[in-house]
Amino acid sequence: MMLDKITEKVLRMIDGEGFKQEGAFNLRENGISICHGDSEHVKIRKKEDRQGIDIYIDKDTNGETVHIPVVVSSSGMTDVVYNDFYIEDGAKVTIIAGCGIHNSGCNDARHDGIHTFHIGKNASVHYEEKHYGEGEGTGARILNPVTDIYVGENSIFTMDTVQIEGVDSTKRETDITMEAGSRLTVTEKLMTHDKQEAVSNMKVIMNGDASSAQIISRSVAKGESIQTFHPRAVGKAACHAHIQCDSIIMNDAQVRSIPEIDARNVDAQIIHEAAIGRINSEQLLKLQTFGLNEEEAEGVIIENFLN
Amino acid sequence: MLKVEHLSYEIEEDGKKQEILKDVSFEVKDGEMLVVTGPNGGGKSTIAKLMMGLYKATEGKIWLDGQDITSLPIYERAKAGIGFAFQQPPRFKGMTVRRLLSLAAGTDLPKHICCGLLSRVGLCAEEYLDREVDATLSGGEMKRIEIATVLVKKHKLCIFDEPEAGIDLWSFAMLVEEFQKLHTEKKESLLLISHQERIIQMADRVMIIDGGQVTKCGPTQEILPYLTGEAISHPQCLKNQGAAV
């Protein structure tokens, strides 16, 4: 189906691979699923009892990508959606979600995406979620994602979340439960500016022996924005976890980083690191010796830090 | 050609003014290699930083090919043709070695060019291209990458602040060869801050800085005797002989 220019632009910002109406996909716009498709191994079904979809990824899925973007372009709308992913044993899949809000009105536009992953054994899932806001309106652009993930035995789950610009307020809640031998990598990248606010709470429970988790959070806070991170790793078995939170703080911004490690087994090894600081002046000087002015140097440092 | 006239630099510490450099004058001719040496804390690195604009001179003038660059900011001096290798290069989280070299070159560098550069400074290129310029690299590795950021393009004047610091002997030998090659080609003027005899011996001229002043400057063969034995152990001896710029 034909998409309007605003939707196409927002999709370009939130879907790095480029959204196409091919294979398994579902495009939700202003609270309605406007187009969707299945593939041989991935079936998408509309929920009967509430807003949202169920995505069934069968065991023979091998390297396929599923695109499920959301666009909100209607000022004043609050869109709440429940998406459940059922991933069978041994499946290998990439899921590209993401939400973009174009708000050209004076009322708030809000999307709450509530995603639940049920991952079987020996599966490999890569999940990308990019958030973006734009529009000349005075209404706020609000995104509040909730993600619950169950990672079965010996499965791998990697999650990349990115929020670089335009979102006025976000509160992210992520809960992950891991079974034996499973591996988790979460990379969270965030930049806030003006008076934006961002909160990210994450809880990873490692229930099984030999499970391992790596959580990397990198953020830049500009203007008068406020960021709060609270990643929590709970080790209930012989497991490994590493939490690393790095933030660059600028102007009059505020950043709170509260990594929490919680060991409930003598063989749990959990490490956390957290650092908040301004841009290193030596870095600025070094890049200026390459011929970049201070503003350009600052841009390069931020871009690479969030890369 | 770089020409420095009556350069002074002072800082204020606890309300008191402290002169770091006093009335320093020297030249680096086209294709010439000048090594600045002398005791620790004498002001050698300050000279290098003043040339690049990292510090602002209190008095004096700096000319590059006839252009007064004294008040130019760092990036304008870089555009004017000065390259600078830091004594202690900063680390960049998230930036790959290849990206850093591309930024230094001012253009996206193809893989084979980056590999060639890293080999010149003694690094096994394939292993380093996609590594981050962060705390996972050792001091020696950082230093060699830093030198590569200057070698990546042609400058009128290359400044290396103690290039030998933190580098193992084997790699140092390679770097000496690189400096020798640069010097033999005479395409760029070289200003090196160094204590290393092998680097000093390579120079056309040597300038000794002590207590913020030039105590000796001249052709390498003339200055070398002052850098051995008594002269280097007792820098005061050098002062007593006065500056010869």
TrEMBL record, chain A:
Listed transmembrane segments: none
Signal peptide positions on this chain: none
A Pfam family matched in the record: SUFBD_core
Domain of life: Bacteria
SUF system FeS cluster assembly SufBD core domain location: 87-305
GO-annotated biological processes: iron-sulfur cluster assembly
Family: Belongs to the iron-sulfur cluster assembly SufBD family.
Name the UniProt record assigns to this protein: Fe-S cluster assembly protein SufD
Native source organism of the sequence: Sellimonas catena
From TrEMBL, chain B:
Entry GO CC: plasma membrane
Keywords for the protein's UniProt record, in alphabetical order: ATP-binding, Nucleotide-binding, Transport
InterPro entries: AAA+_ATPase, ABC_AA/LPS_Transport, ABC_transporter-like_ATP-bd, ABC_transporter-like_CS, P-loop_NTPase
Residues in the signal sequence: none
Source species, domain of life: Bacteria
PROSITE patterns, sorted: ABC_TRANSPORTER_1, ABC_TRANSPORTER_2
Pfam families in alphabetical order: ABC_tran
Any one Gene Ontology molecular-function term assigned to this protein's record: ATP hydrolysis activity
Domain ABC transporter: 2-236
Entry protein name: ABC transporter ATP-binding protein
Naturally occurring in which organism (per UniProt): Sellimonas catena
